[in-house]
Design goal:
The chain has two helices and twelve strands, in the order H-E-H-E-E-E-E-E-E-E-E-E-E-E.
C-alpha cells in the first residue's frame, strides 16, 4: 500500500492507476505515478541541493510500501499507515485516520519522524487532489470552496505567492479566514496563519485534478 489515501466523497484517485501496482524497476526509472488522493510531501521542494526534496517522485515517501495497523476498533475507529524510511531525506511518515461513531467527519493526524541517527531539518505539506468536476462531467464545479485561518486582512497582503497571480479573483479574506472560490486557475500561495502546530505557514496549491 503506497502512501496515498483516498477520502470518500472528497479526494479523487486516478482511475488510470486504481488497483494497480508497479515494479520497483519502473519506479526507479524516475517516473512519478500520480495516484491522486491525499499524501504527505517534504518541503522545501527543488533539485538544487540535498536540502530540497526532488519530487514529486515515486520514492519511499510517496510510493513506498506502507503497513496498515488497526489502532482502535470501538466507538472510535482508527487505522495508521507506517511508511518506510527514506534514505535520501531521512524521513519516515505515519499518517493516521480516525472516525467516530455518529459523526460525519473524519480526522487525520500525521507523524513525521527522523529515521536517521543525526539531526535533519524538513517541513511537511499535506497534498490532496479533489474531484472538481461538476455533476454532469462537462465542466468544473463552480461551487467549490476552501477555507483556512489567516491573520491577514486582505489577499493582496499575503506573504508568499509562489506561482500564479497575486490578484487572483479566486482569493478573498473575511472574518479571519482565507477563502478560495476555485475558478479553474492554477496557483500556489503560502498563508501566514497561527493555525496548526509548529509552523505559521500553510500552503494551498490550486490545480485541476485530472
Amino acid at each position: 500500500m503506497a502512501g496515498h489515501i483516498c477520502r470518500p466523497l472528497l479526494s479523487i484517485c486516478n482511475p488510470q492507476y486504481k488497483g494497480n501496482s508497479f515494479r520497483r524497476r519502473e519506479k526507479n526509472n524516475g517516473k512519478w505515478f500520480n495516484y491522486g488522493g491525499d499524501k504527505l510531501w517534504p518541503l522545501p521542494e527543488g533539485r538544487q541541493d540535498e536540502q530540497h526534496w526532488a519530487g514529486p517522485a515515486s520514492d519511499p515517501l510517496d510510493d513506498g510500501e506502507y503497513q496498515l495497523m488497526v489502532v482502535s476498533h470501538n466507538s472510535t475507529c482508527a487505522v495508521r499507515l507506517d511508511g518506510p524510511a527514506d534514505p535520501v531525506t531521512g524521513l519516515q511518515y505515519s499518517p493516521q485516520i480516525q472516525h467516530r461513531q455518529r459523526f460525519t467527519a473524519n480526522s487525520f493526524h500525521a507523524v513525521m519522524k527522523n529515521a536517521t541517527g543525526h539531526p535533519i531539518r524538513w517541513s511537511v505539506q499535506s497534498v490532496t487532489q479533489y474531484d472538481t468536476a461538476d455533476s454532469t462531467g462537462s465542466g468544473f464545479n463552480r461551487d467549490f470552496w476552501a477555507f483556512t485561518p489567516s491573520i491577514r486582512r486582505a489577499p493582496t497582503s499575503m506573504d508568499q505567492v509562489r506561482a500564479g497571480l497575486a490578484d487572483d479573483p479566486s482569493f478573498n479574506i473575511a472574518d479571519g479566514l482565507f477563502l478560495l472560490h476555485w475558478q479553474y486557475l492554477e496557483n500556489e500561495i503560502w498563508l501566514d496563519s497561527t493555525a496548526g502546530a509548529g509552523s505559521p505557514w500553510r500552503t494551498i496549491r490550486l490545480a485541476y485534478a485530472y
